[in-house]
Amino acid sequence: MSRIKSHAQDPDKDFWDRFVAITSKDLNLTKAHVRYIERKLISLLLAAKKCRVVNRTQPDFERLPEADIADMDSFLDEIQLILPVIGVDYLRRPVVAQVREPILPVKDVQFRLLHSIKGI
């Protein structure tokens, strides 16, 4: 909470008016887990390009065991699923619709029945 308080009192950071706290159900997130999640969230925010990211430090994280990385990636998947539901939709990249031309023009497509069934 000290980080939130310092941001709230910093006049250079008066652009934010809310924050989202993320916790786990069994409260077993370590400092290394949090650094990993923070780094991944910052990467997702930058890739989505939906907001301006103001962060003086790129969080470094200690090496995590493979099982912990898998757990944190699963946790991140859940975060990405839940945040848009509560109105925080900054992590998803915008969908760009692509119009594809058909491989063959429709007039050139031909169908031929190779096996007849019951005289059809």
Which short descriptors sum up this protein?
single chain, 120 residues, mainly alpha, elongated
- End-to-end C-alpha gap: 75 Å
Helical run tally: 3
- Which class do the helix and strand fractions yield? mainly alpha
Bin the helical content.
25-40%
| Strand count | 0
Tell me the overall shape: elongated
Largest sheet: none
Helix and strand pattern: HHH
Spans of at least 5 consecutive residues whose pLDDT stays below 50 are none
Overall pLDDT metric: 80
User: Strand share of the residues?
Assistant: under 5%
Return the domain count. 1
The radius of gyration computed from the alpha-carbon positions, rounded to a whole number of angstroms, is 24 Å
Summarize the structure.
The chain has helices spanning 2-9, 31-48, 66-82. The protein is an all-alpha fold and 120 residues long.
What does the model show?
- This protein has about 120 residues and is mostly helical.
- It contains 3 helices and no strands.
- The chain has helices at about 1-10, 30-50, 65-80.
- Helix 2 (about 30-50) crosses helix 3.
- It has one domain (about 1-110).
- The protein is about 35% helix and about 0% strand.
How would the blueprint of this fold be written?
Elements: H1 2-9, H2 31-48, H3 66-82
Helix pairs in contact: 2-3
